[in-house]
Write a structure and sequence with these properties.
This protein has nine helices and 19 strands. It is of the alpha+beta class. Among the domains are: about 80 residues, Beta Barrel (OB fold (Dihydrolipoamide Acetyltransferase, E2P)), CATH 2.40.50; about 200 residues, Chloramphenicol acetyltransferase-like domain (Chloramphenicol Acetyltransferase), CATH 3.30.559.
Length: about 425
């Protein structure tokens, strides 16, 4: 009997995936744990392996199909030397159901006769004789005098009468959405390539747009002199690598500097959940990594408890997993603050977009020699622009600026990180 290969559990709150690529075809002989296909979720790509050895009977779903957790992907006839089974024949096309006979259109109902005004219906309001507050309200709202039922003496209207008339006016219906205009033939289609967006790219697009639509996003800038860190790194990088087996980069300094700022300004490490502010007393730092599939943000857990060497090793491991497509859902969830380094690609300045539900993100940029006034003299210094984008609903401008200044102080005087000052 053929064994069903089903979509495995993909992580908390993940219920579906897209079959990105089949690695086998019907009739292939497979071994236990051999990869059969790649499933693309909103965050990671997952390989599905064979649970038995045998021959692939059929592929139940095609590439690009969205499948639910527990859904059948393919069937394998157990037995390492089993003969390749022929794919199942396509199901017969069901007979077309007879078209329903359209019911005759009902005859239009006769228009109701106009109702004569009742003798008890009050006359139009006497606006001119009404009080000044009432007249002003009528002018501001533009309500017609004939729509107001006066209750005051001698046909005078009151403010309550005007407000009642306003409430009785039906709200205008929303205009119908315009149908999407078909793209039609493109004039230079022969020189274009059309590729369907991957699930990951769609998720990135939706999350970034969600951040812009939801948060009151603002960015503050500063610049940092990298002389001290670069000098320290150059002096100790060989000893560091010999002892710890990891390269000493700049990211560990920035991770530690950010944690120092987050501890002093807790709102930067918080998030909004409903009507509550959630302040987090732990520091799970997300590090944005560019991959061929798109931008992902793996998380370095409890970074405040890690040494410089452990931070560098952790970042290197997460970066390798990201590039190899081996990240798990657990690697990508639960971050409290994000660092994005556009400088590795040559970016001089940018305004990073929040990684929801986080409330802030640091953008690092290219190190560039610039003339700076130092001790009354103009000197060339390796400078980097820093940017912090933040949610103004929870973080005030003062806190955002102080947070960025704290990072600047720690980078320009890295001994502060050692002494905690």
């Amino acid at each position: 009997m053929a064994v069903e290969i089903k979509v495995p559990a993909l992580g908390e709150s993940v219920t579906e995936a897209t079959v990105a690529k089949w690695l086998v075809k019907a009739g292939d002989t497979v071994t236990i744990d051999q990869p059969l296909c790649e499933l693309e979720t909103d965050k990671v790509t997952v390989e599905v392996n064979a649970s038995v050895a045998g021959s692939v009977v059929d592929l139940a779903v095609a590439e690009g199909t969205t499948v639910q957790v527990g859904g059948v992907l393919c069937h394998i006839e157990a037995g390492a030397a089993g003969a390749a089974a022929k794919p199942a024949a396509a199901a017969a096309t069901p007979a077309a159901a007879p078209k329903p006979v359209a019911a005759p259109a009902p005859a239009p109902a006769p228009a109701p006769a106009p109702v004569a005004p009742s003798a008890s219906t009050p006359a139009a309001a006497n606006i001119a004789a009404s009080g000044p507050a009432t007249r002003k309200l009528v002018e501001e709202t533009g309500v017609a005098a004939s729509a107001i039922q006066p209750t005051g003496k001698d046909g005078r209207a009151t403010k309550a009468d005007v407000l009642a008339a306003l409430s009785s006016i039906p709200a205008p219906s929303a205009p119908a959405a315009k149908p999407a205009v078909p793209a039609g033939p493109r004039s230079r289609a022969d020189r274009e390539e059309r590729v369907r967006m991957t699930r990951l790219r769609r998720t990135i697009a939706n999350r970034l747009k969600e951040a812009q639509n939801t948060a009151a996003m603002l960015t503050t800038f500063n610049e940092v002199d990298m002389t001290a860190v670069m000098t320290l790194r150059e002096r100790l990088k060989e000893d560091f690598e010999k002892k710890h087996g990891a390269r000493l980069g700049f990211m560990s300094f920035f991770v530690k500097a950010c944690i120092a700022g987050l501890k002093e300004l807790p709102s930067v490490n918080a998030e909004i959940e409903g009507d509550d502010l959630v302040y987090k007393n732990y520091y799970d730092i997300g590090v944005a990594v560019g991959t061929p599939q798109g931008l992902v943000v793996p998380v370095l857990r409890d970074a405040d408890m890690l040494s410089f060497a452990e931070v560098e090793k952790g970042i290197a491991e997460l970066g390798k997993k990201a590039r190899d497509g081996k990240l798990t859902i657990a690697d990508l969830t639960g971050g409290t603050f994000t660092i994005s380094n556009g400088g590795v690609y040559g970016s001089l300045m940018s305004t990073p977009i929040l990684n929801p539900p986080q409330s802030a993100i640091l953008g690092m940029h290219k190190i560039q020699q610039r003339p700076m006034v130092v001790g009354g003299e103009v000197k060339a210094r390796p400078m980097m622009y820093l940017a912090v984008s933040y949610d103004h609903r929870i973080i005030d401008g003062r806190e955002a600026v102080l947070f960025l200044v704290r990072i600047k102080e720690c980078i320009e005087d890295p001994e502060r990180l050692l002494l905690g000052v």
